[in-house]
């Protein structure tokens, strides 16, 4: 994950802000830990295994407002931030308030004035997230007209945000990146096993998280619907489709050799393969034969090779 430039040259010198920024950057230089927190928080709120939901617009208004609380809790669990005395956290010995807004319009109460704000924004549809630091000051803040006098950052305040990561990639929710017609086809069967089969048949060559499998299966032992003993791996093998797991180095290596999407830990990728008559680029040797990735609608479907959990 590419680290983006930090802040702007117009911010005043703020040693505590620099200390906090440095501490977070040291703990998570690539941003992968924070990216996973945002992914997990969306999935936690959707609760897809029980509800089948996977989109922001499927949530109730009260659930959407709860997202900021969950982010605050999940970031603290991931990074073991100490409880603040007056704000949410203590990071590197400094009080820090945690704020989330889907539009980066963080609401700052009067008691936050003078303190550091760890502000975040995320977009599941775009698979992006941002986290930045800024100090809430009178000159940085619009004065709220509401009863509790909460305000937002003004133009100067927004310029002074020190972005730790800006529009960084988040592990994708593949159900948001396929067509509505394909999503409907996946969810159409009444059987959880049939839905999982259709997921790997329809969303080939794309990273599929375990949570997506749980959302589609809506069953307790959802990973059983993937395994070779009667699950999707068994059914789809006859269609020439293999399923590769990011939890096994050998399967990740197979994905790389085939030149297809590479599953990360906790992810799966399905791909249709056909035997190659000669050694080709982006081919792999399995079951004593050489295989290459095929196009999704290839008519030459043949029995796929077996994939070992290693």
UniProtKB/TrEMBL annotation:
Record GO terms (molecular function): endonuclease activity
Q: Which organism is it from?
A: Glutamicibacter halophytocola
Record keyword Nuclease present: yes
Stated name of the protein: Restriction endonuclease
Q: Which UniProt keywords apply?
A: Endonuclease, Hydrolase, Nuclease
**One Pfam short name:** NaeI
- Type II restriction enzyme NaeI domain spans which residues? 23-298
